[in-house]
Design brief:
Layout lengths: L5 H5 L12 H10 L9 H8 L4 H19 L7 H8 L3 H6 L1 H12 L6 H13 L2
Helix pairs in contact: 3-4, 3-5, 4-7, 5-8
Length: 130
Amino acid sequence: MHERTLEQLEGAVWPDPPPRSTGLARAVHALRRRPVGELTPHEPARLIGQQVSLPWLLPSAVRHLHETAPGQATGGFYDDDLLTAVLAVSPEIWSAEPELARGLRDALGSLADLGPHLTEAAEDFLRANP
């Protein structure tokens, strides 16, 4: 999977974005054409935040958040951008993916000091996914 692009994994090639597209739109199109294994840590957050390629990106994002959550309390790195993007995923996706929702709930249970915006988003997620 890591050597394949999201376009290859999905079997869907998007046309080039229109010439007057935003930088974000151009970036999303370009990221879909890069091998998944070459994406830098913040790039999946960008794609997930745009609700792009969720079946391929969301499982690894939740796994990453779950693995790094315990270290956050001791001052370890925690990817707030990725967490923000994942928490913004629509409730319908989480309903269809209860195992992923459970993994994210577990990760959230290990976190502290998220800040007001992330705390509110996490509480909203937990209310919607008991």
